[in-house]
Amino acid sequence: MKASALRAPGSTGEPLAAPVAAGAARGLSVERVTMRFGGLVALGDVSLDVAPGEIVAVIGPNGAGKSTLFNVITGIYRPTQGRVLIGDLDVTGRPAHAIASLGVARTFQSSRLFTGISVLDNVILGMHALSPPSVLQALLFPRRSRNELRQAAAQAGRILQSVGGHLYDQRYRLAEELAQADRRRLEIARALAGEPKFLLLDEPTAGMDDHDTDVLIQDLLRIRRDRPDLAIVVVEHDMRLVAALPDRVAVLEYGSKIAEASFEEIRRDPRVQEAYLGSDSVDD
Amino acid sequence: MSTGGSLNTEPGEGGTAPARFRISRDLGTVAATITAVAGLLYVFLVVTVTLHVVIVLGAMAVALWLLQRDPRVEASIAGSFERRRSFALVLGVAVALAYPFAIGQNTYHIHLLVICILYSVLTIALNFQLGSANIPNFATGATYGIGAYSSALLALNHGWNFWATLPVAALAATVFGFAIGLPSMRTRDAYLALVTIACGVIIHQLLNNFEWTGGAQGLIGIPAPSVFGHSFTQPLRVFGLTLPAQANFYYLALLLLMLAIVVAGRLHHSRIGLAWNALRADEIAARSVGINVVWYKMLAFAVDAFLAAFAGVVYAFYVGYIAPDNFTFLVSVMLMTMVIVGGMDNVIGVIIGTFLLTLLPEKLRVFSDYRLLFYGLVVIAFLSIRPQGLFPQRLRRYRGVE
Fold this sequence. Notes:
The structure holds two protein chains of two kinds.
Chain A: H1 17-23, E1 28-37, E2 40-50, E3 55-59, H2 66-73, E4 81-86, E5 89-90, H3 96-101, E6 104-106, H4 119-125, H5 135-140, H6 142-162, H7 180-193, E7 198-202, H8 210-226, E8 231-235, H9 239-244, E9 248-253, E10 256-261, H10 263-268, H11 270-283
Parallel strand pairs in A: 3-8, 3-9, 6-7, 7-8
Antiparallel strand pairs in A: 1-2, 1-4, 4-5, 9-10
Chain B: H1 17-46, H2 50-69, H3 71-83, H4 85-103, H5 107-133, H6 140-158, H7 162-184, H8 189-209, E1 219-220, E2 226-227, E3 230-231, E4 236-238, E5 241-243, H9 246-268, H10 271-281, H11 283-288, H12 293-319, E6 321-322, H13 329-342, H14 347-363, H15 371-385
Antiparallel strand pairs in B: 1-6, 2-3, 4-5
Helix pairs in contact in B: 1-3, 1-4, 2-15, 5-9, 5-10, 5-12, 5-13, 5-14, 6-7, 6-8, 6-12, 7-8, 7-12, 9-12, 10-12, 13-14
């Protein structure tokens, strides 16, 4: 584990200080997290702070630990060392559903939709994080339960109308029948249904063509406009999206954070160029 | 197709001519469907000649094939039921209540119906797990047995009456449900199935070997229940008509089935049912939207055990004699077949599948030793016509988001 040079690498350290300090009480912090699987170090002493309203991109080659980082934050994995904080609350080791109800929503690299039920039902399920349903109410006050479901459906319909593409028109299709780009959109809609404070997007453009990617960028910009307090962390390979959206970019390589700065600075960083971007993508 | 359009939003308005036409068409469809199902059940119940059985099964197969070929038919019938829900409910209950009168004095047929209804309660219970949440629980036969044994023991050893044993038996079975649920939480799919099979086998072995459960001989002489001084061993007199004693249990079982249907419907049409569907599809995604997967699985185990125990209690007091072999692993497999053939996560489908597969062996008696072979052939044939089960889960539709 060669992770001593991770904080503030070179010139990129300074711009971080301000937003982190401002958002420390309400933000999301990953503090010196290490994740080992047997002998493999998937994450080595990685730290990341995200303030409300910020968009942070996490980039890095395949196997750099980006998805592992998401799994640690969302409670799918319990880190071997280190802490995850939401505001001042230490949530390390809490179950995934508890972390979701603290306002952390996510999408998955290989989209994980609820198959066998409709697109609309998928979005309704996203609201679980906000308000879990009551069994007693379902059994004893069915009218109230049905109304609750009906209201949730109306709300889910509004959310589907607000995302790009034609998801709303497909609301009564089975989720698995959607085209790839729409599956991605549906995952984002489902995540937004829980009115999260933090939205983690794991390669949202995977399987999208250029046009779909442009629409997605527009979608995300609109989401940011509509929800100024929502922080977004996005793992991404598509450099157009990374250039267009984030306030900051963190670079992971072999489980370590090798740089963190604005996109402009990141693309000039020689180590990042070597590790990930390659000279072509920097100059185009 | 009957979606969209302003007519759809005001089903109660009968002002315009097309709306009136549609209401009468819906009422006609509902009445015809219920009559057809009741008639088909009657025919299937009374046929004895093998050739006739084959003809009835063939007719069912053709009907299902037509349904499969043109999904609009099913959608249109379902739409009529959806719009005329209370009419369908009243008519359905009335037909169910009147059924013993149509059968008359044939105690064997009423007996078959009681067993069909009790099995339907069991399959509805199992459907919460298998259909809604994809938990392959092979221990439903055991929870059924625990319900039956705990009530029978309370009645025989402590003189409790039927009604008092009901809640205690349900509680005992629910505790057992939790007991299988907990170790199952760490497993999934085939491994989960294995854990529940083991639990089911353990219960069967214990019932077989304990002295206080009567061993392999089981428990004999469970007293029949009575209500307001009317013993269930007495014939039932209604409106000057006399029904055989089995009819008492028919109505008792029917009451239980209605309870099961109501519970199933309420859970299905709430966000609880939706959450079960979510963990059926993808547990990790379910956790990520805030669903407490362990809690929802335990809930499915609890509801299953609770309803299965009720069925067990009624069964024990009905036949008056229970033995471990009534509650084997094979019973669980049979229940599972009924849910799968009937249609996962669709209560009506599950009930139809249960009636069909409960009555079928009785109709195949002429084949004696080859009975199971023909049983299997019918199951395979029906599943190849309707691969998702006779009546699979339907999408939830919401008013206002048409």
